[in-house]
Amino acid sequence: MPQPASSPSGGIPAVSVRPVRGHDGTSVILSLDAALPWERLRDEIVRVLGQTPDRWRHGTARLDLGDRDLELFDVRRLVHLLRDEFSLSVTGLYSSERALHRYVARELKLQVFVRDPSGDWTADELARVGEEEDPTRPAGHVDVVVLDQVGDADEGTGSDAGEVTRQTELSRPAAAEDAETALRVDPTAAAVEDPSEVVFEVPPSLLVEPTPVSFQGGRRLLPVHRTLRGGQRIAFPGDVLVWGDVNPGATVEAGGNILVLGSLRGLAHAGVHGDERAVIVAFDLRPTQLRIATRIAFPREGSREDGGRGPRPFRPEIAWVKGEDILIEDYAGRLPGPPSLVVHPPQPAAPPVEPVEPPTVLDHTE
Amino acid sequence: MSECIVITSGKGGVGKTTTTANLGVALAQQGKSVAVVDADIGLRNLDVILGLENRIVYDLVHVIEGECRLKQALIKDKRLENLCLLPAAQTRDKNAVTPEQMRDLIAKLKETHDYVLVDCPAGIEQGFKNAIAGADRAIIVTTPEVSAIRDADRIIGMVEAAELPEPQLIINRFRAKMVQAGDMMNKDDILEILAIPLLGVVPDHEDIIVSANRGLPVAFDEESLVGEAYRRIGRTLAGEADVPMLDLTVQDSFWTTVKRWMGLSPAREVAR
Q1: Any idea what DSSP says for residue A332?
Q2: Are A32 and A174 in contact (CB under 8 A)?
Q3: A292-329 burial code (b ≥16 CB/10 A, e <16)
Q4: Torsion from C-alpha of B147, B151, B154, B158, nearest 10 degrees
Q5: Cβ separation B153–A245 shorter than 8 A
Q6: Chain A partners within 8 Å of B154 (Cβ)
């Protein structure tokens, strides 16, 4: 059932919603106007879906971006918006091939070549880096042909697809001719086997970012759901949370804090970029070595974790920098001094101890 | 349904080869057809432990390089009909074989045997990669020593990275007396760090050295406690549920008990 919404500027629908039968209940395809800026588009989506919010809950959605340029950041914001506001998980994207080419050209700074009908490779002019708008194509152009194919690709939604096509034609009379013009001008659409439509079926989990603690300052949390064994190493610019043990010979490095919900017996380095307010908390803290910013602490002689004798009380402890030393105390559920779980920028005075690692490195150095 | 199990440890000298030989014997005694493969190319030992050294004509590298058929290289055990050995080459090194070749070889052996036990060389290099290539699961052998446990932990991580199922643990060279005196790590200390299921504990005993010198695996010895430990592990491996573990606690002598009654001897510390 199409629910066209008029954009404030005129009679053109900025967002149209097309329900389809999915394998798992409610599923919709959201077609977005390629010309609208993202902020306006977002408001439109909230307005259109907000009319019947309960209808979409816990369903899945696919975004039809048409010929809109893919901006990963915007797509991600949209995914989050749909998830948070409407409990809709986005499972796929429709995009024109040219938009994908432009995306590749922009991201990789490479020219994209396509095979023309004679079999020769020619540069896709529309995918130039820093592309100017093709003067023959009006802004916000949507390929009607493309939408039809989308419909056909969906099982049992033939009539729905037809409706949408009609809807587009009605609301944008020039579109049909434009599509043909575009096909004639741009031979790639006819030449490539899968014409001008690219579908990404992505499990929703891949589009969702690692659990953010706070977006301020980019501080993020990396949850590690495993025990780190000897020779394994985790390095992450934000906070690291280990659900398991860190065994002797394993290393955890974090730009921020390190939390271990288990035994920390290996090496932990918090605040690798020089943040002295970083802390290390573990349910059972008996490391081979602790490092916070530029400071290093060794456990006392004779307290070796597995050669030692006698039972050791199992209690959470916290390590933090006080004055010149790393102090280890019972962790009573509160952080010493100013809370370090809140974002704080790296202190410029302290130079980085080690070069910043790319996020989430798990390697077996052999 | 046949299965390939690799016996590995990381550290050398913890008893991989002895364990492989004895588990091979224990499984064969239960009527399973077993092939033990020595993957320690260049430093072969398994043939010596099994007492089959002087029967070697062809070896693993000959098979892989196509110089003989697999069947020609397999050496049948003198005592057990359904146990055979594929010996390693002594004149080559680990790089003579690739993981893909090992995988093919193991697959062929699995067609004709219930169990294929691979004796892995020490270390984490090419030899290790070859040995785990065709394995369905792994058994980690360790001793109650910090260095052996460190290496076992590293190996467990690498076994997991190779996408094998969770390995099982055998604690070898266990000395109940030292543990009770608090001079050796106990079972729970080791399991706390390694956090994998325990398959069995094998006590330290001079039987092992004697049997290795004679080329007669201790699992043949009905009298030996060590042999019994291996036979029980073999039963567990063959799928028997709830095989009781050996009671390795040291019994007090009569006089110690009397002294304790009289308050002359300190109360015995319960083994942790």
Answers
A1: -
A2: no
A3: bbeeebebeeeeebbeeeeeeeeebbbbbbeeeebebe
A4: 180
A5: no
A6: 229-231, 249
Burial A25-57 (b: 16+ CB within 10 A, else e): ebbbbbbbbbbbeeebbbebbeebbeeeeeebe
Residue B268 forms part of a structural domain = no
Which two three-digit tokens encode residue B26? Answer: 């224990």
Give the CATH number of the domain where residue B236 resides: 3.40.50.300
Minimal Cα–Cα distance from B236 to chain A, Å?
27
Question: What is the DSSP annotation of B163-196?
Answer: TPPPPEEEEEEE-HHHHHTT-S--HHHHHHHH-S
B49 belongs to a structural domain: yes
Q: Which two tokens stand for residue B207?
A: 């039987």
Q: How many residues does chain B have?
A: 272
Task: Compute CA distances B26 → A126, A169, B3, B191, whole Å.
Answer: 72, 78, 16, 25
Query: Domain for residue B270, yes or no?
Result: no
Instruction: Tell me how crowded residue B206 is: count the other CB atoms within 10 A of its CB.
Output: 8
Residue among A230, A245, A364 minimizing CB distance to B150: A230
CA atoms within 13 A on the CB side of B45: 19
> Is the backbone of residue A176 left (phi > 0), alpha (psi -120 to 50) or beta?
alpha
Picking from A232, A307, A311, the nearest residue to B146 by CB comes out as A307
User: A95: number of CA atoms within 13 Å, CB side?
Assistant: 18
The one-digit pLDDT tens for each residue of chain A (366 residues) are: 444 444 444 455 778 887 776 555 667 888 887 777 777 888 888 888 888 777 777 778 888 887 777 777 777 778 888 887 788 888 888 877 777 777 777 777 777 777 777 777 777 766 654 444 444 444 333 332 222 233 333 333 333 333 333 333 333 333 334 433 333 333 333 333 333 333 434 334 333 333 434 334 445 778 888 889 988 888 887 888 999 999 999 999 888 899 999 999 999 999 888 888 899 999 988 898 999 988 998 876 555 444 444 456 678 889 988 888 888 888 887 766 554 444 444 444 444 444 444 444 444 443
Contacting residues of A for B156, CB less than 8 Å apart: 229
User: Does any CB of chain A come closer than 8 Å to the CB of residue B177?
Assistant: no
Residue found under tokens 């409407």: A86
Q: In this structure, are residues A183 and A145 in contact, taking their beta carbons and an 8 Å threshold?
A: yes
CA–CA separation, B89 and B83 (whole Å)? 20
Going from the C-alpha of A65 to that of each of A81, A89, A95, B5, B6, the distances in angstroms are 16, 16, 5, 52, 52
Q: How remote is the C-alpha of B115 from its chain's centroid? A: 14
Facing B124 at nearest CB: one of A247, A265, A366: A366
Total domains in the fold of chain B: 1
Q: Is B152 exposed, middle or buried (0-12, 13-18, 19+ CB in 10 A)?
A: buried
Q: With contacts defined as CB-CB under 8 Å, which chain B residues touch A309?
A: 182
In the structure encoding, which two tokens stand for residue B55, read together? 């029967």
**Domain hosting residue B114, numbered range:** 3-261
Which chain B positions have a beta carbon within 8 Å of A364's beta carbon? 157-158, 161
CA distance B57 to A31: 73
Within a domain: B272:
no
Assess B140–A contact: CB distance below 8 Å, yes or no.
no
Q: Is the Cβ of A227 closer than 8 Å to some Cβ of chain B?
A: yes
pTM: 0.58
- A183 and A147 in contact (C-beta within 8 Å)? no
